[in-house]
TrEMBL record, chain B:
Annotated GO CC locations: plasma membrane
Protein's name according to its UniProt entry: Sugar ABC transporter permease
Taxonomic classification: Bacteria, Bacillati, Actinomycetota, Actinomycetes, Pseudonocardiales
Organism: Amycolatopsis japonica
Keywords, ordered alphabetically: Cell membrane, Membrane, Transmembrane, Transmembrane helix, Transport
Record bears the keyword S-adenosyl-L-methionine: no
Length: 427, 319, 288
């Protein structure tokens, strides 16, 4: 009996020691065929028709310019993209030639080596010089550019014009004023939130962090180190967490709100103010506050300054495994060019990434102005390292905010813990 | 014909037949087991083996793709996991949460199954249909519906409660307090899991011969006494199976917690192990750590189930 | 069930029990009702200040959006194919395995049983990467069963429903008395005959429970559908069609509810079909 167990045990150890986990064997590189089908992955929208129409036009134009070429578009649900891209990385045969992806995913995708380096292509592209530098930065990882910025998403301050008029309030010009205004609103109207923000709304917290002079992390000779425990960071995060108090947005309701939930509360008439993106405008218009709100850039710590916003947005990238490299790059440049960026704005409300297009829009469409102003004032991004997606997934920053807001930990302790978590992930 | 044999579900230690039978059994068994066996071997045993392997390496997306070398960590992932204080907190909460869900679904399912055997079709059919609708609702949809019903600002429950006079409940958040949140999610889980128990137990109860119950009634036993002392013990093996299944499923709950607590609750205080694994490992493509967590979870479940089966064996009624 | 003299005395008790039954049925069904109701409510009313368990302005727009989404009918068909095949094969394979593990005596039986149980305990999410690579290799040999094809989904759902199905059916098979088998042997029936003609119908209730479970599991799965089906979207299943409405910033709740309602209906239909079978077979089994 014992010998049998011993043999079984040795066999098990042997199996484990002798073998290694399955890995993909890297593909035999791409190709540069000039005909065939270019496969494109684009993010699906709940109401896809306008986007699809614009894309179809681009495809028609592309086919006219290249004979023998077809373009096949696959619509990817944003929520399920992680597995799609995982599948594409693990099985290059399933990968597309061109794909749309969020700029927060750039570093982790680049680490797989599956995306093509477009630095050269973009610098030789005639419209390449027009890409807003701040936005282009978000497409880089390790100094190389892995995507063409297709559109950008910026957040600003939404507020209720009717409430402000009724209570004799003026739109806040500094963050401190914002806090006071929010308190006043809730004091006078206890059934409303002064401002609806949430513990999970990281992208609303970041402007506070940055406006106070804090940074998420600093790169020191190739190695990233968290700076969330600095004094400025503490001031910024605490300023945000102070919004999650009983006199503005009680932790019971707000500690766990995401960005979407925050703006939904505003759209449902439950808050005097909120922080929302250009992409939220349609939903707010469809809600109960239609016609009763306005948007201004989120102020900074001093009057006349705008808090640096988080530069979200999507890029168009090319896979290394593509068999039609030039075609893929050309299609990317077509779809990401001025003409179609403008069409995408009309179709989806996406803010363009090309300076000239932005100026044109700001001049003709007043509702875009606060977002363009915010963008022009300066945006910031998350650390461009693959470790960031891990930190994001682990909810390090929201946990810190929530701990401060609920009193679970004091700001110093919460941020020290957060910094430690981040440094562990940075490696 | 009342059978007094108590169904055996454990394998007897010694085969009850003589050699000629055994030889024939072996071959027939192989034939019968082959299709299922091959499938399970390929689709479950091999991936589980891979999983264990992966848990000993630093294995992320770059490694899976072949873009980065494999680094053997030995028990590194396990040490990292067990050193993490949060892991133990989450484990404790998962155990408590699982216990509540299992007991809840068993009690509700069995109770309703007994009730269903006593009523006529006009009452039983709606119950079954409702239970089935609850069971059929996709986990995500069910979670969101419950979330909407209990929403602090827009929920029907708060609306009704404040309408009934509990004005303090007007904006009450059911998902803020740790235990209130767990309670809400447990309610949803019990809601969508009890149908399985009910259907299973009902099938078993229907199999209990009419005559046995008759005899008990004629002897003067009350409904409750009959159920408790006679019917339930006869369906005990089924109850055991239902319990084990419930333990396995409820321990691994993911969707309901993830959806209803917005990814783990305030500061992660509503995390259960599977969501914790997703957050700490899979969402960040740390497959090695995730695999270690998967192995640990499996071992935990094995121990829990083992303890349960052993406790069942010890109590009367089993061979 | 027959009513006896003993029972007649308890009639008022039974009526109360029946009322309780119906009330509970209503409470259990309420969230489902809410889901269906939300599918018919105009968007503004779904998450609104004063929620009501009715709507005065029902609309079909959410259903239109869901149904006109690309390839909805195709995804629906794919889901049906996968679910039906999985159910049929689960019943067959689990029955065979359960009989072998319960009725036959051979070495290593307990070990196999335990292994089958353990197989269910592994968290499924942890297995997606190894399974992906496995299915890709399978696809190299038999494309229809590899990644990007429905065959891979069938195989994986079959593999994950079998352990439970075997365990469950074991209970039912074990509950059939040995005497029955003895008696049939004396009557001259072969083992095969006994298994299929006598044992199979006797465990019908267990088969019903298993088929419902396997159906629900295969129908509602979206973890494996999104892991395995990468480039061939024509092979996607229904849950993925609804995923698109979950935009991180702007979820289309009306469509989510409408889609979920559409997804729930076939399961209910399946059960109702199976339920009738159960009733007719039960009648035969109880007589034994």
């Amino acid at each position: 009996m014992r010998t049998r167990v011993l043999i079984a045990g040795l066999a098990a150890v042997g199996l484990v020691a002798a073998c290694a986990p399955a890995q993909n064997t890297p593909a035999a590189g791409g190709g540069d065929e000039k005909t065939g089908t270019v496969r494109v992955w684009l993010f699906d929208e709940a109401n896809r028709a306008p986007k699809e129409a614009a894309v179809k036009e681009a495809i028609a134009e592309f086919k006219a310019a290249h004979s023998g070429v077809e373009v096949d578009v696959q619509w990817i649900p944003v929520e399920g993209r992680a597995d799609k891209f995982s599948g594409a990385f693990n099985d290059p045969a399933s990968a597309p030639d061109v794909a749309e992806f969020g700029n927060t995913d750039v570093s982790s995708y680049a680490a797989t080596g599956a995306l093509a380096d477009l630095t050269g292509d973009l610098s030789s592209w005639k419209e390449g010089a027009d890409i807003l530098p701040a936005v282009l930065e978000t497409a880089k990882s390790g100094g190389k550019t892995y995507g063409l910025p297709w559109f950008t998403g910026i957040r600003a301050l939404y507020y209720r014009t009717d409430l402000f008029a009724e209570l004799g309030l003026k739109p806040p010009t500094t963050l401190a004023e914002l806090t006071e205004t929010a308190k006043t609103i809730r004091a006078k109207k206890p059934e409303l939130y002064g401002i609806s923000v949430g513990g999970k709304y990281t992208y609303a917290m970041l402007p506070f962090l940055w406006a106070h002079g804090g940074e998420i992390a600093k790169q020191d000779g190739g190695k990233w180190k968290s700076t969330m425990d600095s004094e400025q960071a503490k001031a910024g995060v605490t300023a945000y967490a102070n919004l999650l108090k009983a006199d503005i947005c009680p932790p019971e309701q707000c500690a766990n709100l995401t960005g979407t939930q925050s703006i939904t509360a505003f759209a449902g008439g439950k808050a005097g103010m909120s922080i929302g993106g250009d992409f939220n405008r349609k939903a707010v218009e469809a809600g109960q506050v239609k016609g009763k709100y306005a948007i201004i850039p989120l102020p900074g710590t001093e009057a006349g300054k705008i808090a640096p916003a988080f530069a979200g947005g999507n890029l168009l990238g090319v896979f290394n495994a593509t068999k039609r490299k030039s075609l893929a790059v050309e299609f990317t440049e077509l779809l990401g060019g001025a003409k179609y960026q403008e069409k995408m704005y009309v179709a989806m409300g996406n803010l363009p990434t090309l300076g000239s297009v932005q100026q044109k829009l700001a001049a003709s469409d007043p509702s875009v102005k606060p977002f363009v102003d915010t963008l022009t004032a300066g945006t910031k991004f998350v650390p461009a390292t693959a470790a960031w997606s891990k930190i994001d997934a682990q909810n390090v920053l929201p946990t810190a905010i929530q701990q401060i807001a609920t009193g679970g930990k004091d700001p110093a302790a919460a941020l020290t813990a957060a910094a430690a978590e981040m440094n562990k992930a940075f490696g | 014909m009342v059978t007094k044999e108590i169904p055996r579900t454990t394998a007897p230690a010694v085969p009850a037949r003589r050699s000629p039978r055994r030889r024939r059994d072996g071959r027939a068994a192989l034939l019968y087991l082959a299709p299922g066996g091959i499938l399970l071997l390929a689709m479950l045993v091999y991936p589980i083996y891979q999983l264990v392997l992966i848990s000993f390496y630093d294995y992320g997306q770059p490694q899976a793709v072949g873009n980065a070398p494999l680094v053997f960590l030995g028990f590194g992932n396990y040490v990292e996991l067990l050193e993490n204080l949060q892991f133990w907190e989450v484990l404790a909460k998962t155990l408590g949460f699982t216990a509540v869900c299992v007991v809840g679904s068993l009690a509700l399912g069995t109770g309703l199954a007994v009730l269903a055997t006593r009523v006529r079709a006009w009452a039983r059919v709606p119950l079954f249909l409702a239970a089935l609708a609850a069971w059929a609702t996709p986990a995500m949809a069910g979670s969101y519906v419950w979330l909407f019903l209990f929403d602090a600002d827009f929920g029907l429950v708060n609306e009704v409660l404040s309408g009934l006079g509990f004005t303090g409940m007007a904006n009450h958040s059911w998902t803020f307090d740790t235990y209130s949140t767990f309670g809400l999610v447990a309610a949803e889980v019990i809601w969508c899991s009890f149908p399985f128990v009910m259907v299973t137990m009902y099938a078993g109860l229907k199999g209990v011969p009419e005559e046995v119950i008759e005899a008990a009634y004629l002897d003067g036993a009350s409904t409750w006494r009959t159920t408790w002392s006679i019917t339930l013990p006869m369906v005990r093996p089924l109850l055991t199976i239902a319990t084990i299944q419930s333990i396995i499923w409820d321990f691994k709950i993911f969707t309901q917690i993830y959806v209803m607590t917005n990814g783990g609750g305030v500061a992660g205080r509503n995390l259960v192990l599977n969501v914790f694994a997703y957050q700490q490992a899979f969402a960040g493509q740390e497959y090695g750590l995730g695999a270690a967590l998967g192995v640990v979870m499996t071992l935990l479940l094995l121990s829990i189930t083992g303890l349960y089966v052993r406790s069942q064996r010890r109590s009367a009624g089993w061979v | 069930m027959g009513v006896t003299t003993g029972r007649r005395v308890r009639k008022p008790g039974r009526l109360i029990a029946e009322i309780v039954c119906v009330v509970i049925a209503g409470m259990v069904a309420f969230p489902v009702y809410w889901m269906v109701l939300s599918a018919f409510k105009p968007t503004g009313q779904i998450q609104a200040e004063n929620p009501r368990p009715w709507t005065l302005t029902p609309t079909l727009e959410h259903f239109e959006r869901v149904l006109s989404g690309e390839g909805f009918a195709m995804f629906f068909l794919n889901s049906v194919i996968v679910a039906v095949v999985v159910v049929a094969l689960s019943l067959l394979l689990s029955f065979l395995s359960a009989v072998a593990l319960t009725r036959f005596n051979f070495k290593g039986r307990t070990v196999l049983l335990v292994m089958v149980l353990v197989a269910q305990m592994v968290p499924v999410e942890a297995l997606t990467i190894p399974l992906f690579f496995l299915m890709r290799s399978v696809g190299d040999v038999a494309p229809a069963f590899g990644t990007n094809h429905l065959g891979s989904l069938i195989l994986v759902h079959l593999a994950f429903s079998l352990p439970f199905a075997i365990w469950m059916l074991r209970g039912f098979v074990a509950a059939v008395p040995q005497e029955l088998e003895e008696a049939s042997k004396i009557d001259g029936a072969s083992r095969m005959r006994f298994t299929w003609q006598i044992l199979f119908p006797l465990v019908a209730p267990g088969l019903v429970a298993i088929s419902v479970l396997a159906f629900i599991h295969a129908w509602n799965d979206f973890l494996f559908a999104k892991t395995f089906i990468i480039s061939n979207t024509e092979n996607q299943t229904l849950p993925l069609a609804i995923l698109v409405f979950f935009k991180p910033e702007d979820t289309d709740w009306g469509a989510v509810m409408a889609g979920s309602t559409l997804m729930t209906i076939p399961v209910l239909v399946f059960f109702i079909l199976v339920q009738r079978r159960l009733v007719s077979v039960m009648g035969g089994a109880v007589k034994g």
